[in-house]
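Q: My labmate handed me this sequence with no annotations at all. I'd like to see what the chain might look like in three dimensions before we decide whether it's worth expressing. Could you predict it?
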Amino acid sequence: MQSSDQKITIPGFRFGIAAGITTIITTVVLYILIFLVTPLAAFLKDTFFELYLFTILFLIANIVCAIIMIAGSFMIEHEDHALTGSILILIISAIGMVFSVGLYIGPILGIISGMLGLKEHHQLTKMHHSMLQEHHGMIQEHHDLLQEHHEMIQKHHKVLGKKAK
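A: Here is what I predict for the chain of 165 residues:
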């Protein structure tokens, strides 16, 4: 059995947090490089306005993906929502791989997190199933004891009935 202070979902949670934080850091670095360090933003704004807007939307999408990755990792941490969080992180990471979110580092960590979360969910399901089996066995034992008790009461009543005659 798993002790109450040791959780199965910790590795998936940690990789998910790392994925989100890595994506945020790479987005901030890209923002600094594009808008503050180099004259690229001004050049794009003046000559290729559509590309400038795409760059802004790309950076916003990076941040949104990072926030969803972090939210999914917190879902993985809570055993009731491990499956949902794992699937959410896998979907966002797959989208991130297509659009180079977090320079591929964040999505790769997110895929690892999602896979670990699915594995952890499977372990939780197996543990839950074994607990249900154990509970079912205990109920059967209780039923058998009640049956035995009922038979003893019937024998007792028969003995009392014979003494009364």
